[in-house]
Design goal:
- Two copies of one chain form a homodimer.
- By secondary structure, the first copy, chain A, is mostly beta strands.
- The first copy, chain A, has a five-stranded antiparallel sheet with strand order 2-3-9-4-7, with no helix packed on it. In chain A, strands 6-5-8 form a three-stranded antiparallel sheet, with no helix packed on it.
- The N and C termini of chain A lie far apart (about 30 Å).
- Chains A and B meet through strand 1, strand 2, strand 4, strand 7 and strand 9 of A and strand 1, strand 2, strand 4, strand 7 and strand 9 of B.
Chain lengths: ~120, ~120
């Protein structure tokens, strides 16, 4: 876990072998995470299927997010945020390399209902 | 509450009589909020003293944040985030008008310990 006070765009490398996940905050009910994607995508044919709900916002770069129950990907720009209900299958089709894509994700524990 | 999917920088007015607070997400344990400040500041001599912890990030504009236990204000730029423990007295000294200051605040319920 990195510091609870800092700068979201600090220490972003120029390239990464895999996406980088930094936990900013962890409570019993939620986890706040910075994700750095530099041209990364979910491997072909794979889908995320998460036990908990997730609220995610893209804050730098560009990305394509696809839900299994939608025909087309959603093109995300900085400031776009998306609600991903538990077990709603999704994948990241692509992310920008320059600048890197920087996301802020709030993961809610399973059973923690959002109103 | 506004939609759980959207754009953080949408519908930002040019001026506001008072700061605007939009709840993006509400669970039993946490509340995610967008705050728009357009030149607003905490009234002179007043301090926030909150029952729960707060994690807050500035995502547009500039702001000065002062803690009662610190001599100098912290100057915040987009991407700067700050942890505000419950009952740590603080105030917003100033915010930019052009562009407006846009914050994302995660409020944790009292008793919801962050690790």
């Amino acid at each position: 876990m990195i510091s609870k006070t800092g700068h979201l765009f600090a220490s972003i490398p120029a390239a990464l072998p895999a996406e980088q996940f930094d936990t900013l905050l962890q409570t019993g009910a939620c986890r706040l995470e910075r994700i750095i994607s530099i041209g990364h995508a979910t491997p072909p044919g794979e889908w995320y299927d998460q036990d908990g709900d997730e609220w995610v916002i893209l804050l730098q770069g560009r990305a394509g997010l696809r839900f299994a129950d939608e025909d087309q990907e959603r093109k995300l720009a900085p400031g776009d945020y998306v609600w991903i209900s538990a077990h709603r299958r999704h994948r990241v089709e692509w992310t920008s390399q320059n600048p890197p894509a920087v996301w802020l994700a709030l993961h809610l524990e399973s059973g923690c209902d959002a109103r």
